[in-house]
Amino acid sequence: MGRLIPGRLLAPGEARGTALVSREPLSFWGGYDAATGEIIDRAHPLAGERAAGRVLVLPFSRGSSTGTAILLEAIRRGTAPAAIIVGQPDAFFALAAVVGEEMYGTRLPVVVIDEARLAEIGTGDTITIDATGALSVA
Amino acid sequence: MGLDLSSRDREMLDGRHGPAAAMAMSIVARMAEVCGADRLLDITAAHIDSTIYVGDATLEFAERLAGLGAKVAVPSTLNVSGVDEHGWQEWAVPADWARKAHRQMVAYQSMGTTPIWTCAPYQAGARPALGQQVAWGESNAIAFANSVLGARTERYPDLLDICCAITGRAPAVGLHLDAPRAATLLLRLVDVPRRVQEDDAFYPVLGCLMGHLAEDEVPVIDGLSVVPSEDQLKAVCAAGATTGRVALFHIAGVTPEAPTLQAACRGGRPRREVAVTMADLREWRARLSTTSSASLDLVVLGSPHFSLDEFRRLAPLVAGRRRHPDVRFLVTTSRLVRDLAEGAGLLRPLAEFGATLTVDTCILATPMLPPDIRTLMTNSAKFAYYTPGLLGREVVFGSLDDCVDSAVAGRVVTDLSGWDD
Predict the structure, then answer these.
(1) Please, which residues bridge with residue A20 across strands?
(2) Over the stretch B43-98, which tens digit does the pLDDT of each residue have?
(3) Quick check: A65 and A59 in contact, CB under 8 A?
(4) Looking at this predicted complex, what is its ipTM?
(5) Which end of chain A is more exposed for a tag (fewer CB within 10 A), N or C?
(6) pTM attached to this predicted model
(7) Which residues of chain A make contact with B289, given a CB cutoff of 8 A?
(8) Interface mutation target, options A39, A58, A65, chain B, most CBs of B under 10 Å
(9) Which residue from B294, B304, B263, B285 is spatially nearest to B123, judged by alpha carbons?
(10) Are B359 and B332 in contact (CB under 8 A)?
(11) B177 SS3 class
């Protein structure tokens, strides 16, 4: 059992996976390849990383409105992250997850935690998200 | 707290206004809870970014709503689509992509929308007034509606914009309200020469820097000594919404909610102040190019879509000249602006120059570029920022004059006078 961080589920679900963390926000359109689950924004610190199946930790989304569409397409293809953790309520990610569950029956938990506590998660940590939105970081 | 729905909202949720309104309201109400809204408010118009086809998911969502008989409740314009409906065969768009993107266009048209197919709706007839509550998608258009027109929209993602349009309702949060429109970050231009401020290339670069610095705050820019044109403001919007999440910014003495710096802050004080210097601007200008090689295959203009005024600027620059045979020259715009430019006699010099036009979409939203186009040049920060990741190609940023001169020379030429140390 690792450190516990309380969170609020913006989109429901449980997940366990390896964290991929950036302090820099990301636009999924132009930043995430729905075919491969790879981060393709060449100016982003996570460029070239595969986020599919991992727990993606970002402060918030930036950029294009189409980011939601890209995440929905990634959910359909099975290339989405296992979960997304943000430091502010983010409708872009939550919406794709909610619609994705409705259309494809796949859950992608989106959890908002206290922004100051994002720094407690590092790339490579194992994150467990329970049905209440609480995180365990190990 | 919790979300307090009106009786009409609940009727929609219960299906008494049809299954499409029920689906749309369930999504709007769900997102209202995510954003912490305690109520919904009426919107008077919408701009729908959900039109962009990115794969089967967006098509299935559109056709599900259309199949349920969805109709918009407020005047709703459509953003760019995934295909130039009548011109895609001139480029490398795969037929399967074109067919599906077109089906998505048909689905959104069936909802009683206004198909203007442009990411610059504000230059194609959709100009909400100061204080008007709207739900707009398309990041550059959101920033323009809020900042330049003083209309009120949150930053709407695809899928939610159409649900707001169908229900006529939006979560009463964020930029729909007064207080969150106050500037909290002051960006002060320090020793930026007037000559640079008069250069078109200044505005997209300033926008990039603003987007990067703003994080989640509302910025106000102070210290401009020129009054930017509408197209220069458009360039700031597109850039700030690309490198950041800027949905509203003010320019003291220029934008409608900022007659003064104090007014932009709505009586408060900025939480942070950052100086913007030539060194910062030079750095961001350089970051918009991925190569210093002079080789060039395509010059592309029009993100956001080219305006009539931009055609007026471009026509004399190309008149009597001819592009180099190895460099293609493309302008992306809306059908309306194309027709207006045609009527104004502005397209003939472009055609003689060897330029081509694409409407309804742009290079980022449709896979139109053939593989032999490896290096692009553009005056758009949005094209420049997204091209490497989205298209896997090299890009060079330059002013409009640089773009035309480079197309003629057949290689990249940039004039950095005024920007040099």
Answers:
(1) A56
(2) 999 999 999 999 999 999 999 999 999 999 999 999 999 999 999 999 999 999 99
(3) no
(4) 0.97
(5) N
(6) 0.98
(7) none
(8) A65
(9) B304
(10) yes
(11) coil
